UniProtKB/TrEMBL annotation:
Keywords: Methyltransferase, Transferase. GO terms for molecular function: methyltransferase activity. The lineage of its organism: Bacteria, Bacillati, Bacillota, Bacilli, Bacillales. Gene3D superfamilies: Vaccinia Virus protein VP39. Its EC number is 2.1.1.-. It is an enzyme of class 2 (transferase). This is SAM-dependent methyltransferase. GO terms for biological process: methylation. Residues 50-132 form the Methyltransferase domain. It comes from the Bacteria.
Length: 249
């Protein structure tokens, strides 16, 4: 899946349900943090927060009381449509959503106190431009070995064949080059157990884990065997591998 195909896929998902997987039944064991809880703990009530790649806005709406103003941006028209709808239904007054590319943050310099980005591309120099001196940036990203047994079964997948920790190293270097300091990184590799085949299929259809999943009949044959091989008493087993980077400008 190239960048154009990914953007089309992402926009399609955005129009359907945003980036909301709350109805997927999954048991996780070994998760070390909740990213937006970490973001909320970093904020003061007087802060202005920017969330890059905000998706359907579900996450920052859930932490709206942690800051004075929260702004979510996304390049996807579909995601912003869903985020705007979610915001209107929530009746939360201090959250705004804008369609904007992360590589061109059209805000005043030194405007935000905290910036966050979960599972979305970001550009360190752009973030440095809009963050106040001493401001904090937090990102959580998908590690190369996430859903490894699924990728092995299909022989393809997101970051398939990439060297472990290569994305983390790239982002840390870019943040350092942009003038950030006190850069810290954390990671976990948790077990996930999807309760039913339908839950796993929803995940694969609404994420780029297996590009173009379901377009060929053989995909469902592979999935059927994967379920047989990885079924446990508490669900269908795979893994969730994430890293988090926190940096100060």
């Amino acid at each position: 899946m190239n960048s154009i195909e990914y953007k089309e896929f992402y926009d399609k998902v955005g129009k359907i349900n945003g980036w909301d997987f709350s109805n997927v039944k999954c048991i996780s064991k070994g998760v070390k943090w909740d990213f937006y809880n970490e973001v909320a703990k970093t904020c003061k009530k007087s802060d202005i927060l920017l969330d890059i790649g905000t998706g359907g806005g579900e996450a920052i709406l859930s932490i709206a009381d942690s800051a004075l103003l929260l702004v979510g941006i996304d390049h996807s028209t579909g995601m912003i449509e869903t985020a705007t709808k979610n915001s209107a239904e929530s009746d939360i007054a201090n959250v705004r959503f804008l369609q904007m590319d992360a590589e061109n943050l059209n805000f005043p310099e030194n405007f935000f106190n905290v910036t966050s980005s979960r599972h979305s591309c970001f550009y360190a120099k752009e973030i440095a431009k809009v963050l106040v001196k001493g401001g904090m940036f937090l990102t959580q990203q998908v590690s190369e070995n996430d859903k490894l047994n699924i990728k092995e079964a299909f022989g393809r997948g997101q970051a398939w064949g990439a060297k472990k920790d290569s994305l983390k190293a790239k982002y840390i270097t870019e943040l350092s080059d942009a003038g950030f300091n006190d850069i810290q990184s954390f990671e976990f590799n948790a077990n996930e157990y999807y309760q039913t085949p339908a839950d796993l299929i929803f995940l694969l259809k609404h994420t780029p884990i297996i590009p173009n999943f379901g377009e060929k009949e053989i995909d469902f044959q592979i999935l059927q065997q994967f379920i047989v091989d990885n079924q446990t008493e508490i669900g269908i087993r795979t893994n969730s591998e994430r890293f988090m980077v926190i940096a100060r400008k």
